[in-house]
Amino acid sequence: MSDMPVFKIKRGGDDRSCVLKKVVTAEQSLELPKYIDGMYVTVIGGGAFKKSPRLKSVIIPDTVTAIAPKAFAGSNIESIVIPRSVTAIGDKAFDKCVYLREITVENPAAKLGKSLFSGCYNIRRASLPVSAFVGRWFTTVEDLTVTGNGIISENMFKDCGALKSVTVGEGITELREKAFCDCTALARVVLPDSLSIIEEDVFEDCGALKSFTVPKGVTEIWWEAFSGCAIESFDVDKDNPNFRSDGNCIIEIAEKKLIAGCANSVIPDDGSVNYIEDGAFSECKELNAIVIPSAVKTIGDHVFVNCVKLESIVLSEGVEEICDFAFAGCSHLEAINLPSTVKELGFGIFGDCEWLSDVFFNGTIAAWRDVRVDKYFGGNSSFVLHCTDGDVEDYK
Q: For the chain, which terminus, N or C, has the lower number of CB atoms within 10 Å?
């Protein structure tokens, strides 16, 4: 094989452009020419690199506007940057590029064909338009940038266990349910101001995620968005009119609702929180103590469910309602005090609280009988209910 690369072309629709049909080279790295025989190279044709088995890296010139179907299919390419000049990439352009590790498509509006990366099982770094992420070809990616306009759909990156860093570009407006669920190595997330909605369980069980900042454009955060995370600090962009952060809590301003908390949360006692949203601390595995201030009237469903290290809960006088499964699965909880102000207790509140032995009600037995208590509020746990004037043995 000659030391000099050989390029075979086909004349384009005019005398000024051509299609690159074949590249023959022994080089491992190659910069494609802008001109061949006086014509601009504007298209890379299908199968163009089949005769270059040693080629690992290609630099594409900014004269190229289209990449044909199967252009790189079956090649040994390892890294490539598709320049912003490219507006269309054909079906299966990188089919079975099993050595491909790094890929960047600079044009977020590029029209992408089907099954672009089918059989590409080793991609480690990717910067691509959101429409490219179809199929399960990104389970090995470690560093991810998502560009373009649209949404990150349900389960899009679920179970991408190697994923460590995500940057979501301007133009993405929603993170749908479980978008990054079970990305257990995910430690860095950068989100755009264009983002408006974070749905439920988006970051469920992202155990390496230690901090999170809500961008200024977010208007909705659904329940249990951070369930099972190891987050230590929450912050909210100072220009967000809908949410604020205080004490490592995310608070919805208008509704005075605590949306999400973490292991280091201190719930404000200034009256800015009167409702704790469903699942706000769900599966917060490092939380070991929490104080619920007197301004909080309602603790929603599943708020502290499966907080397995939670040992101390202080419920201040003023709390009126504790909803279904609020403390279920808090297996290290041994005792808890219920304030005299409580009016309603939901289903399974203390279910699977294996160590729970004593519940203290800060009122009389007669007052306890006036509380609307679901008959299964204790779930499958066994404990003694202590009132100020005696014990109620119904829950043994």
A: C
The 10 Å Cβ neighbour count of residue 375 is: 7
Residue 20 · residue 41 · CB < 8 Å: yes
User: pLDDT band at residue 15, thresholds of 50, 70 and 90?
Assistant: confident
Name residue 270's amino acid: D
Q: What are phi and psi of 100, to 5 degrees?
A: -65, 120
* Rounded Cα gap, residues 379 and 394, in angstroms: 12
- What are the tens digits of pLDDT across the range 156-173? 999 999 999 999 999 999
**Are the C-beta atoms of 32 and 52 separated by less than 8 Å?**
no
Give the dihedral sign, CA 111/114/89/157: positive
> Which one, of 301, 308, 362, lies nearest residue 333 by Cα?
308
- Whether the pTM exceeds 0.90: the reply is yes
Three-class SS state of 132: helix
Nearest to 135 by CA among 160, 118, 113, 149: 118
Sheet holding 384-387, edge to edge: 335-338, 358-361, 384-387, 390-392
Is-contact 176 156, C-beta < 8 A? yes
Strands 35-36 and 39-44: antiparallel
- The CA distance from 1 to 23, in Å, is 12
CA–CA dist 369, 372 (Å, integer): 8
The token pair at 342 is: 């409580």
CA end-to-end span of the chain: 85
Tell me, rounded to whole angstroms, the distance of Cα 199 from its chain centroid.
9
Encoded amino acid at 32, one letter: L
Asked whether 191 and 180 are in contact (CB, 8 A), the reply is no
> What is the DSSP code (8-state) at residue 33?
P
Mean of the per-residue pLDDT values of the chain: 95
